[in-house]
Specification:
alpha+beta, two-stranded antiparallel sheet, 39% helix
Length: 101
């Protein structure tokens, strides 16, 4: 259990990542963090497309992300080119689900 790490909030534009060495977890900054700025990391792979991130955060973590990235991507998924985004997403979904080790 990592009680201090559990206090860090989620962002789809994280400024830190979790790094493990055995059972030791370290929060590592991936950008400059100013004094007083909140340290945030992504609860899931931030490379996932908006629909996957949104569904996972709602269903698994019980909240809706309202970061600027999600707001921008949500507008795109609901905008005039939503059908093209859906087609592109569906064309790569089998790749995302396959094991490409």
């Amino acid at each position: 259990m990592y009680p201090l790490a559990a206090m860090l909030n989620h962002s789809c534009v994280p400024n830190a990542v979790r790094v493990f060495s055995g059972e030791i977890m370290v929060a590592h900054a991936n950008t400059n963090i100013k004094a007083g700025e909140e340290i945030v990391w992504s609860y899931l792979p931030p490379t996932q497309p908006y629909p996957v991130r949104s569904d996972t955060l709602k269903n698994h973590y019980g909240f809706e992300c309202i970061c600027q990235r999600c707001a921008t991507e949500e507008a795109a998924w609901k905008g005039p080119h939503a059908e093209l985004l859906q087609e592109a997403y569906e064309s790569v979904t089998p790749l995302n689900r396959s094991n490409l080790d």
